[in-house]
From TrEMBL:
<feature type="binding site">
    <location>
        <position position="178"/>
    </location>
    <ligand>
        <name>substrate</name>
    </ligand>
</feature>
<comment type="function">
    <text>Catalyzes the oxidation of glucose 6-phosphate to 6-phosphogluconolactone.</text>
</comment>
<comment type="similarity">
    <text>Belongs to the glucose-6-phosphate dehydrogenase family.</text>
</comment>
<dbReference type="InterPro" id="IPR022674">
    <property type="entry name" value="G6P_DH_NAD-bd"/>
</dbReference>
<keyword id="KW-0560">Oxidoreductase</keyword>
<feature type="binding site">
    <location>
        <begin position="90"/>
        <end position="91"/>
    </location>
    <ligand>
        <name>NADP(+)</name>
    </ligand>
</feature>
<feature type="active site" description="Proton acceptor">
    <location>
        <position position="236"/>
    </location>
</feature>
<keyword id="KW-0313">Glucose metabolism</keyword>
<feature type="domain" description="Glucose-6-phosphate dehydrogenase C-terminal">
    <location>
        <begin position="185"/>
        <end position="481"/>
    </location>
</feature>
<feature type="binding site">
    <location>
        <position position="174"/>
    </location>
    <ligand>
        <name>substrate</name>
    </ligand>
</feature>
<protein>
    <recommendedName>
        <fullName>Glucose-6-phosphate 1-dehydrogenase</fullName>
        <ecNumber>1.1.1.49</ecNumber>
    </recommendedName>
</protein>
<feature type="binding site">
    <location>
        <position position="47"/>
    </location>
    <ligand>
        <name>NADP(+)</name>
    </ligand>
</feature>
<dbReference type="Pfam" id="PF00479">
    <property type="entry name" value="G6PD_N"/>
</dbReference>
<dbReference type="InterPro" id="IPR022675">
    <property type="entry name" value="G6P_DH_C"/>
</dbReference>
<dbReference type="InterPro" id="IPR001282">
    <property type="entry name" value="G6P_DH"/>
</dbReference>
<feature type="binding site">
    <location>
        <position position="144"/>
    </location>
    <ligand>
        <name>NADP(+)</name>
    </ligand>
</feature>
<feature type="binding site">
    <location>
        <position position="212"/>
    </location>
    <ligand>
        <name>substrate</name>
    </ligand>
</feature>
Amino acid sequence: MQTDSSFTFVLFGGTGDLSMRKILPALYEAHRAGLLAETGKIVAVARHEDNRDAYLAWVNEHVKPHVSKNGLDEAAWTSFLERVLYVKLDLSRPEDFGVLRDAVGTLPGIRVFYLATGPSLFVPICRALASVGLNENARIVLEKPLGYDLRSSNAINDAVGEIFAEGQIYRIDHYLGKEPVQNLLALRFGNALFEPLWRREWVESIQITIAEELGVEGRGDFYDNTGALRDMVQNHLLQLLSIIAMEPPHSMDADAVRDEKLRVLRSLKPIDPRDISKVAVRGQYHAGGIRGTPVPAYSTEKGVKPDSTTETFVALKVEIENWRWAGVPFFLRTGKRLADRVAEIVVNFRPVPHSALGATALRPGANRLVIRLQPNETIRLYCLAKQPGEGMNLASVHLDLAFDQFFREGQMEAYQRLLLDVISGRLALFVRRDEQEAAWRWVEPILGEWANSNKPPKPYAAGTWGPAASSAMLAQHGTCWLEEEN
Ligand code: BG6
C-alpha cells in the first residue's frame, strides 16, 4: 500500500554507515515497489559533501552496491535519485539550522527526521529543529543506542520529550520490523492451537538465542564501551521475550500491543545482585576459527582495549512473575563470534504426565516447538511417533513449516517496513518510552554488578557456543541448549 500523503524524509547522518547500508537501500526498495507517495522527498543532511551532485556521486558509489545485491532496476534507481535532495550542515552548529528550514520548510506533507547519528547529537539536533520551528507536523526517529543506562536514557527522553510529544517519537528496534518477529504475533494470536498450551502448566522452559558469527566489524570503539548486554539484551532480546510472553492484546493498535509488552517487562523478576553468578554468564571470545577461517581475539580488535572486560557473550536465566509464567525459566543468550548465525526460539513443552508407552515418551526431544527467525524462517513442531515395525518404539519426528515455500515473494526487510510505518504514522513496531525504561531498570543490576566485579568475563574460543558456564547454568535446571542435545 502506497503511503497516502506526501512526506519529507530528512536523514541526519546522510553519509554514515547506517544510511549507506540500511536506510537508503530500504528507501530505494520502497520506491521501486511503488510504496512511496510520488511527491515524497528525501533530504540527506551531512557535512562531508559540498552539494547535491557530490552527494549523489557518493550515493552511487557507496549505496548502489548494497542495493545491487537484490538485483538493481536502473530505471527505478534513476527515478529514486530524483527524490534525493541534499543539505550541507554541521550538526554541531545549531545556528546554521536556518539552511535546513529554508530547504524543507515549503515542502508539502509530514516531516520525518531520522537521526542516524551518535546519541550525543540527539538532543542538540532536536533543540536546533525546535529553534527554527521544524518540530511541528513532524515525527522523529531515534536509533539505538538510546542511552547507556537508565539515567542517560531518561536524560535523552526528557530532553527530546520537551520538544516532541511521545506520539511523535519513533524509537527503532530493528528486530521489531523483521517479518518473522511479526509472524510470532500471527502464530500466537491467529491460531487457537498453541494459545491454550502457552503457559506454565504446559511449558517447561523457553530458550531465546540470537547468535552471530560476525565480530565487532570495525565498531570496536563503540562496542568496547557498550557490550552485549546493552547492544542486544536490553533491546532485541527483551523485546522478543515480551512478544513471546505477552497476553493477547485486544487489538493490534499500537498502544494495545505496547501495553501488553510493557506488562511483561514490568513482571520480570528483579535480579538480586547476590545471585548474578547463578543467573547470568558473561563471556569474551579469544582467538579461534569460524567455519575453518581463523579469527583474532576480541581484545586485539581495532578500537578495543587490550585488557578489556567488555562482554561479547551473555546468557541469562529470566523469570516472569505472573500467573501465566511463574516458575518457567526463560534462557536468553546472545554473542559475537559464535558457531553459527541463528536467531531462534525454542519452546519446550512438558512431557506427558504418565507414559503408558514406555520411557521414550518422556524424552526431551519431543513436545517442542522451534521457531527459527533467521537465517531461514521456519517453524518446526517436534512430536513422537511410532517407529515402523514390531513393538511400540517411539521416535522423534517433526512437522516443518518453511515460510519461503508458502510465500515466494513479498518479504520485506526490517528497515523498509519500519520506515514505511514512520512515514504512515504507525507506532506499533516502535518502542515506547515506558518499555525502554522498564528494560533498562531490569538490566541495571547486572550492569552494576559486572562493572564492579573484579572477575573478568569467561573466555570462549571464537567459533564455539560460548563459555562452558552457559551450558552449566542450564544443566542446573535439568536442561541444555538445543544444539547440545544430539
Ligand atoms: C544491532 C547490533 O542492533 O543488531 C549489532 O548493534 C548486531 O551489534 C545487530 O550485529 C544484529 O542484527 P541482525 O539483524 O543482523 O540480527
